[in-house]
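Re: weekly structure request thread

Next one in the queue (402 aa):
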Amino acid sequence: MTLLQGIKVIEFAQWMAAPAAAAILGDWGADVIKIEDPLRGDALRGYVETRPDYPKMEINAPFELDNRNKKSVAINLRHKSGQEIVHRLVKGADIFITNFRAKALERLCLDYESLGSINPRLIYAELSGYGEVGPDKEQPGFDRSAYFARSGIQDILREPGAAPTCMRPAFGDHMSSGFFVAAILGALWCRERTGIAQKVSLSLFHCGVWQLGTDIQVSLVSGKDIPKASRNTAGNPLTNHYKTKDDRWIVLAMPQSDRYWPRLCEAIGRKDLELDPRYANHQLRSQNAASLISLLDEVFATETYANWKKTLDKYDNVFGLIQSPIEVTNDTQAWADGIFTSIEHPTAGKVKVITAPGRFSKTPAQPTTAAPELGQHTEEVLIDIGYTWDDILRLKEEQAII
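Done, posted below.
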């Protein structure tokens, strides 16, 4: 048994945020059917990285991540017969997920009103760039623009006076997918308790604002931005990063600095600093942050990360190592905790994949199948909802399916 066994999901979405949410539901046991255009498919299928130094891969790794555990049905939704197929699928579905814009959904008869009238128990989940009301409701938005830039995240993640930092692909998409799953399951739970089904709306912009909520809440209350801080003058030197002898970066993460200051002094072999009048309490360390950070820079540069890890662990300090993505893939803790697993791919053999966050002690679930080929399950799914082989031949002749 899995967590969402028996839950049927119809996904009409592309790129990353909404498909990633459907992938999580699929990991947790839901039956996910992905509707794609017969000619183009999900836009992410054609994703090509133009950088010459980008790693060469046998498979489309981003597409695999967000589309495992799904069945692909290739339907021409510009054809009336294609829309009728989706309507028949929706009759037996619990959840419909989309990130297409409202006007396109209305044109294809896949809007909330149309599908809700077909299945009053349907949870209709719509993800957009900026929300379903307001002056920018129809503005297209990717995570790079709606989530990372407009929310304030890109502005705040830089040193004072520096250019905005570059964003990684799907950084906001994958964060937003978790919020989307939570909202969908909240609506599903409400339906199960009360019988009330409803539309769930989520925007990348809102998710980005929530992600930066600690900063933005201060701005809401004070009417001002929190000043940007350089690592050389950070208010709490115990929440800063330092380079080791072997050019690794250690991140100290001890916001309760008075609690941890004696431990850090023990770990770095500088007990003399504990009662130093410049650094004896949090306020003094904040006032004299520049000199303390400079001092800690010198100290951490004397030993390798491996040696610092031993001593910092010995005195129960809170810290972390800044790792590269390839280092994360070899992190023994990540593998031990089930962050990664392997699945069989039809062309690439055994492939390593990231699992969805969250563990369930009595209904374990994880990725089981690779992302489907375009239209791989069209005939299978149509037979399951009552179409005959004669119907399928007719639909192919009409070019409603492939």
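The longest helix spans residues 171-194. The radius of gyration is 26 Å.
Next request, please.
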